[in-house]
Amino acid sequence: MRRESIAAEYVYVAAARSKAAKRIEQRRALVAPGLAAAIAVAPTLEVEVLVEVIHGVRLPPPDAATVAARRLARGVRASEADVSTVLARHGPNQTES
Q: What is the pTM of this model?
C-alpha cells in the first residue's frame, strides 16, 4: 500500500500500479472543477456516514436518505446532499478492482 497526495489530502492506494492508477483517477475526478463541493463535507460527517454503512454491511447498501435519517436518529444532522457526496467518494459502490 502507498499513499498519494491529491487536493491537500492523502489517498491510500493499492501497491499494484493498475489498481492504484484507477483509484487515483477516481479521486482526481472528484476534485475536478464543478465537483469542489465534494471536498467541503466535514471529515466527522464522513466518518459518521461510513460507520453507518459499515454497520449495515450485510444489508444492501443504503441510500443517502436512509443514512441521513439514521444519523438524525442518533443526533447527528446530515443533509442528503452531504451524505450523497460522502457515499460517492467512499461508499460501497467505490471498488478497487
A: 0.49
